[in-house]
Specification:
Jelly Rolls, mainly beta
């Protein structure tokens, strides 16, 4: 089997943009292969994903920024479009507090591989969106860190002036 994955490095160490192995569209609709262990292993991605999650949100909802010290995530937007922020929260890294944004959509089919000690959050830009993420650990809220979306120490830029957030994401000094 030939590897049909296109992988791009980003400005953040270990964060990768991945274009899935198979995408086909015709008059009936679209077919997309979102993960193939053999193909991902062939390009050096050996993480063992054990949990898949989806979040369904409406326009201007901002979810995150969350992460932990153990979990690799492979994220994508399977319906609609989102603005994704990935931030290095590893205090021992020379890239600590550095962040990068991406626009993910059902049209571009991009995936982002996010390592442990990095947080991610996303803002829904379309009327609705479905965000998908694969994880290498089981979700445990109490082990996660939270960075406020407008924390001045990070200087994030978001394409919405007044995003809709949860209590957890709106409180500055909540850390899990």
């Amino acid at each position: 089997m030939g590897v049909n994955l296109r992988v791009e490095k980003t400005s953040l160490d270990q964060v990768l943009v991945i274009h899935p192995p198979t995408s086909f569209e015709d008059f009936r609709g679209k077919y997309l292969e979102t993960y193939n262990k053999k193909a991902y292993n062939q390009i050096g991605i050996h993480q063992e994903f054990i949990q898949d999650d989806f979040s369904y949100s409406r326009q201007n909802v901002l979810r995150g920024i969350h992460g932990d010290s153990q979990t690799w995530k492979l994220v994508s937007c399977v319906s609609g479009s989102i603005y994704l922020v990935v931030v290095n929260n590893d205090v021992t890294s020379k890239q600590y507090k550095k962040w990068q944004s991406f626009t993910l959509s059902e049209n571009n089919c991009m995936q982002i591989l996010i390592p442990p000690n990095f947080g991610n959050g996303h803002l829904v830009m379309s009327p609705t969106a479905i965000f998908h993420y694969k994880q290498t650990t089981n979700y445990e809220n109490q082990k996660q860190f939270t960075i406020k979306f407008d924390d001045p120490n990070f200087n994030f830029w978001w394409p919405a002036k007044y995003p809709i957030t949860s209590v957890r994401d709106s409180n500055f000094d909540i850390n899990f």
